[in-house]
Amino acid sequence: MPTNSDLLSRLQSLDGASYKAYREIQGRHDFPDFTLWIDRVQGDPFATPSQVRVIVPQAIAQFPSHLFRNQIREIALRDWLTRQFDRVVRSLWHQLPRAGTGNSGTIQMVQPGQAILERTSVLISGEAVEARFRVGLPAFGRRIAGREASELLCKVLPRVVEQTLIYTNLNSEEIRIHIEQAEDTDFIRQQLTEQNLIAFIADQAILPRRSGVDDRPLLESVISFQTPETLRVELTCPNRGQVTGMGIPAGVTLIVGGGYHGKSTLLRAIERGIYNHIPGDGREWVVTNPTAMKIRAEDGRRIPPIDLSSFINHLPQGRSVQQFTTDNASGSTSQAANILEALAVGTQVLLLDEDTCATNFMIRDRRMQALIRKDQEPITPFIDRIRQLYEEHGVSTVLVMGGCGDYLEVADTVIAMQEFQPQDVTVQAQHVVKTYGGDRLREVTTPLEPRLSRSIQPGFLALRQEDQFPKIKLRGLQQLEIGPYTIDLSAVEQLIEPGQLRAIASALLMLNEPSPHGNRWDLPAQPIYLQELNSLHLYPQGDLVEFRPQELAAALNRLRKASSRHRDDEDSVKSF
């Protein structure tokens, strides 16, 4: 096999050659302490940088096995190593041979956010540790910069490996804290159901973020979270021990309060509590049922065929509600579909904020009931189904509500936010209901029986044979493109990293083929693992990030072909 010396000589000999001659270095190169794999060479200096891996045997890396003895510890260690790799590359930025054209001289590792997630960027086992990243091979114009390339791959890269993947060179205490944080948080999440809780927010948590585009904690002039005594619970972790905070019970919970007092901030923290967070984030002890799904109205979304009869009992002009479909949904129909699609993949907690809900879907007050008879209104308001969701199906709801007191009648718990601090006002809310009563008529008496399908029929992507590996494009977290298909994910609010969209695209390609356990796929009974998705690509991928069945289903249900002439193909996709 070629050695690092061979690679050095080869790169220097290629100096000034056509950029395409870089293909000669594709493959394996053995360095003294690691193996370098150049899996894909970019076509020109302006293209996506080349895909590269380094593999360090454990005889050299020497990571103690207890650091990755179970799945959550392994994920947390890999997450820390990804962050360390990115930090080291940034610290060596001034040493990289950046002179040149396009992406020349760059080393690009996935850049993690505030959550501890499984990624394919770093892998670890008892045999080796592997890092996957991209390298911009240097060029001047479209000519190889051989000396700069040899400096990058044969001198700078070994320094990165030494400071990233060799345990004795790392901060072992920082690694321990990172791993134990994830392990403790995950342990709490597993306790929620047995404690009859759907979420937990620890004392001293910092919930506000710096801005809508900066997920780091806002530390200036922020009061840390303090739990009202009536909602205080104490949970036990394997590493930290006892943790106290506010437990949100299963059932129907309202978050109320004046404007700008932190209602939506609390709900957003609960939304993100499906993920473990890094130490110092402020939300590292905010833990939520892992199936919790943010629900909102989504005007204009495409809805593939779905039975909406649980919320809509008839439509004008005799349109079917059992096989309802549209390319341009209204707020109410989109919100109804979003709820039913979430239930189909096992969601046990619905999270709603009145600011992003369709008013006519949420409530019809007594005056409107008097003006418009029920037989003229096809929508069954959410207020008349919210108790049934919990009592008949075990699905809890957390709802931010500041403008409609009718919801107090259906709530089990009412939390008032005042200057970003919670107060348990359940007793006061019950007193208000008794004092002021309510003459609103309940608009449903039938059981809630959503007709849900969890199976997926392969072949929903009509791809040409030459498109076995269709082009995948991301537009931030807002939109995903797979060949001729476009998926608008702007309203799927719990996606937090671009790598999740890349992994979802790969999963959709997998689901497009017959299941190994039968023709159809069944989610979430048949989970999809990140490592399985690598088989769908020509090269090992380092930028795939874990996702849930909820977000995968959301993507599938928003699949839209770019041209309207392909309507028949679109209708072959069924909601599930």
Give your account of this protein's structure:
With 576 residues, this protein is α+β, with helices and mostly antiparallel strands. The chain has 15 helices and 30 strands. The strands form 9 sheets. Strands 1, 2, 3, 4, 6 and 7 form a 6-stranded antiparallel sheet that branches. Strands 18-21-22-15-23-24 form a 6-stranded mixed sheet, with helices on both faces. β11 (209-211) and β12 form a beta hairpin. α1 packs antiparallel against α4, α3 (71-91) crosses α4 (146-164) and α3 (71-91) crosses α5 (172-191). The two termini are 50 Å apart. The relative contact order is 0.11.
Largest sheet: 6 strands, antiparallel
Rg on CA atoms, Å: 27 Å
Mean pLDDT: 92
Fraction of residues in helix? 25-40%
Total of helices: 15
Percentage of β-strand residues: 15-25%
Strand tally is: 30
Spans with pLDDT under 50 lasting ≥5 residues? 563-572
- Gap from first CA to last CA: 50 Å
Structural class: alpha+beta
Q: Label the overall shape.
A: globular
Short description:
This protein has 576 residues and is an alpha+beta fold. The protein contains 15 helices and 30 strands.
Task: Provide the descriptors you would attach to this structure in a database record.
single chain, 576 residues, alpha+beta, six-stranded antiparallel sheet, six-stranded mixed sheet, 30 strands, globular
Write the layout of secondary structure elements.
Blueprint: H1 4-13, E1 27-30, E2 35-40, E3 50-57, H2 58-61, H3 71-91, E4 107-108, E5 115-116, E6 122-124, E7 128-135, E8 139-140, E9 143-144, H4 146-164, H5 172-191, E10 197-202, E11 209-211, E12 214-217, E13 232-236, E14 242-249, E15 252-256, H6 263-272, E16 276-277, E17 286-288, E18 293-295, E19 303-306, E20 324-326, H7 331-344, E21 349-353, H8 359-362, H9 366-371, H10 386-393, E22 396-400, E23 413-418, E24 421-424, H11 426-436, E25 455-456, E26 472-475, E27 479-482, E28 485-488, H12 498-511, E29 521-522, H13 530-533, H14 549-557, E30 559-561, H15 567-571
Parallel strand pairs: 15-22, 15-23, 18-21, 21-22
Antiparallel strand pairs: 1-2, 2-3, 3-7, 4-7, 5-16, 6-7, 8-9, 10-14, 10-17, 11-12, 13-14, 19-20, 23-24, 25-29, 26-27, 27-28, 28-30
Helix pairs in contact: 1-4, 3-4, 3-5
